[in-house]
Design brief:
This protein starts with 5 loop residues before the first helix and ends in a 10-residue tail after the last helix. The relative contact order is 0.07. It is mainly α. Helices cover 53% and strands 0% of the residues.
């Protein structure tokens, strides 16, 4: 069964102490390792733009090319 808001459902699953599911820190570490190893991934557009600006050294909140 697919959740109406998969991102929120995932957050709830990570934050539920009773399930003994992987912790947020461990999850972040695993994601970082996968990215470093070249695994494909997608992010929302707003996050993609923020990452691009951060890598380019631009200030937060400023659109590229502005």
């Amino acid at each position: 069964m697919e959740a109406a808001d998969p991102a929120f459902a995932f957050y709830v699953k990570l934050s539920n102490k009773k399930t003994k599911f992987i912790g947020k820190g461990e999850f972040a570490h695993d994601v970082a390792l996968a990215v470093q190893q070249g695994e494909p991934f997608t992010v929302p557009d707003y996050l993609h733009r923020a990452i691009e600006r951060a890598m380019a050294g631009g200030p937060a909140g400023q659109e590229s090319g502005a």
